[in-house]
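Write out a record, fold above all:
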Amino acid sequence: MAELVLGVMALAATLYAVLGGADFGAGLIEPFVRERDRRRIEVAIAPVWEANHVWLVLLATLAFVAFPRVYAVASTYLHIPLLLVLLGIVARGSAFTFRHYDPEPGPHVHGYTLAFRTGSLLTPLFLGITLAALAYGRLDTDPTRSFYEAYVAPWNTWFGWATGLFTCGLFAFLGAALLAAENARHAGTLPYLRLARRAHLAAIALGAHVFVAAWFERLPWLARLVRSPVALACMATATLLVPVIAYGFSHGHPWVVRVAAGAQTSSILAGFFAGQYPALIRMSSTDLTVGATAAPAPTLRALLWAVFVGLCAIVPGTVYLIRVYKSPTSSAEKR
């Protein structure tokens, strides 16, 4: 049952990375588009951007109930990057709401835009840094350590910053793919092709930088990843999807781009954690594994029933919301 809950957590993390990542990426690429295209970004992410956070809430709730020790260690010793993630979410959401719905933004519009872009950068950057810290192996619950050793050193690493920057690059590409798919023409190549190519190349280069950092810092995570058939298969899948995405852009197939970009992101996330399994957090002493940190069986059983009932309400509501606000008629009215 612990592994089944872990599977639901992986699904929630994947959905947040794909759907929420595209919305954060739209904010990341906003400085690189023309003024008239910024309205298209608002149309592309409004109003479903807020609904994507349900997957992050689900992920945190499952970790709190099913793996309480993992939740306690991560939220205590990684509270600085996690706080910056939450601040980015709040700043971005507030700024987007005020900028989009304020009838008289006036002199505040520049402040809204700055907060929106800053939040769009902070959250993916420190999400990646947090994920890297879970795999790095510097976390230690020793109470005699200094503040820096306990709360900063575990995430302030070359590998951590490289992973954070890669997350930003990947989300920026997802944002470009979302913008292109939302504004697809009836024939010909998809729009924003040059922007998407640059974002994709940046993500690939930053992904290579992650492996370089892991190799130079001699991370055990890298050695486990190259020995894991599942991780290698995921990385190979992500690589093979690069020409598929290029084909979708060049031949004007928005759904090919959507599906391939989502599958690529899912493969990268699955490959990252496949090299980690069965550990949920790599510690400097004893790793926190799935079996050692799981809640009692009755708790897991009740949790799975609650998740099943909740998803029966969340999934249809989310699908209906997307269908209503992403229909051709609705999108035309917003433009």
Notes: Residues 2-334 form one domain. Residues 297-325 form the longest helix (29 residues).
